[in-house]
Amino acid sequence: MRILVAEDDRGLREVLVQGLEDAGYLVDAVDRGDDAIEQLKFYEYDVAILDWRMPGVPGVEVASWARRNDRPTAILMLTARDTPPDRIQGLDAGADDYLVKPFDFGELVARVRALQRRPRGVGAPVLNRGGLSLDPARRQVTLNGKLLNLTTAELYILELLMRRFPSVVDRKAIAEHAWRDETEPLGSNVIDVKMSRLRAKLVNSGVRILTVRGSGFRLEEA
Amino acid sequence: MRILVAEDDRGLREVLVQGLEDAGYLVDAVDRGDDAIEQLKFYEYDVAILDWRMPGVPGVEVASWARRNDRPTAILMLTARDTPPDRIQGLDAGADDYLVKPFDFGELVARVRALQRRPRGVGAPVLNRGGLSLDPARRQVTLNGKLLNLTTAELYILELLMRRFPSVVDRKAIAEHAWRDETEPLGSNVIDVKMSRLRAKLVNSGVRILTVRGSGFRLEEA
DNA sequence: GCTAGCCTGTCATCGAACTGAAAGGTAAAC
DNA sequence: GTTTACCTTTCAGTTCGATGACAGGCTAGC
């Protein structure tokens, strides 16, 4: 199993390379987007892990290039802060999945495994938890097969909680994930309001949103 | 195997034509970018070899045109200089590969072979969904065998929705796919208008266009 | 070269849905 | 028991999308 890592932060890059090699992968690493394209041109990687921000060519561009050229490589994007527009752009450009920094390394490996198992190009994998099923590509959530009608913000929040499960997600992360201007919701009680509405829609879903006083929120399987 | 060569330098053009014919290809040659577009319009080439700089229309433009019109032709660009910006521009425009002059002829043939192996040129696949059937090559749509009368723009939009099914397609992607100047439709509500008209033509088609508020549109099988 | 028809994009309007502020209530922490 | 953090509901403002009407432009047919 061959993996390409494109990440300009040297520390993180080395952690990734080491960790993935320990997990039994054959890993190549570059620190620039254009180098990533060059590598993708000459080797058929199973998975490419691309940083969003890189010198040369940004990760999105690399993903978009790979998709255009029908490279057989599944793409996992790493994003530092992720605003909705960023994320959508990434998935549209051809990324198959993405991870928000900071992430748990085990989580990364799990997703890499998921990617290599999956036929390529079908879009981001569906997130399941309890009776809930969130499809990032369709941007819809079903509860035991029945369509749940969530607003955009609610969906983003739920998505974040599911992706970070079972960790606690703090308000700052929620603000960054679900709002364009992440400073805005922090001064008000909007997040609480959204949580309330989201909870109301999640009754009998096999999943519950718990409050961790002073820290944030986390998902729990009921 | 049919190849189009677009190269204004007569010496190089003749070398290419001769060499490719010897390699067993059916070769057409032109010396202007606009002529290249004309050829691409009427024949389904497997591969087009385009010089970057040409009288009439530059190679990038030709590539971009081909991409925009979903020609089933893989594109190989010939560039004199090889700077990252050039490369990116070329690849962005829709080139599938590029070669820097001067190049080895064997290298060229190898790349042409690689391009024609790709799934893309293997006949224009008809898109089916519900009772709908869209033939990209003939640019027409039938509903249960009956011809649907769609305008050009409507067809482009429907095609994109079908290709991306079941994912959400954002307005930016629609704009890029269906308009030459993709900035134009974004400031207005043209997309909404087209959607409305398209929907009207798709009643009882077994397919529906759903709005995903704030994100875009997606197709759903009814 | 004129005319009819179709296509396009703009505008105005309508309606629905989403949003965030506020206010008052509740639970946890100390 | 007081304080602080969080929860819920209500409400009004705003945004977003749908649609019908219109004018300009292009094309085909005569």
Description of the molecule:
Two copies of one chain form a homodimer. Chain A has helices spanning 10-22, 33-42, 59-68, 84-93, 105-117, 152-164, 171-178, 190-201; strands spanning 2-6, 26-30, 47-51, 74-79, 97-100, 127-129, 132-135, 140-143, 146-148, 169-170, 207-212, 216-221. The first copy, chain A, is of the alpha/beta class and 222 residues long. Chain A has two domains: 2-117, Response regulator (Rossmann fold, 3-Layer(aba) Sandwich), CATH 3.40.50; 127-221, Winged helix-like DNA-binding domain superfamily/Winged helix DNA-binding domain (Arc Repressor Mutant, subunit A). In chain A, helix 2 packs parallel to helix 3 (59-68) and helix 3 runs parallel beside helix 4. The A-B interface holds A 34, 37, 56-57, 61, 64-65, 68-70, 88, 92, 123, 137-140, 151-152 and B 84, 87-88, 91-92, 94, 96-97, 118-120, 166-168, 170, 172-173, 212-215, 218. Chain A binds a DNA duplex (30 and 30 nucleotides) through residues 151-153, 184-185, 188-190, 192-197, 199-200, 211, 213-214.
Structure keywords:
homodimer, 222 residues, alpha/beta, Rossmann fold, Arc Repressor Mutant, subunit A, 2 domains, five-stranded parallel β-sheet, four-stranded antiparallel β-sheet, 8 helices, 12 strands, elongated, DNA-binding
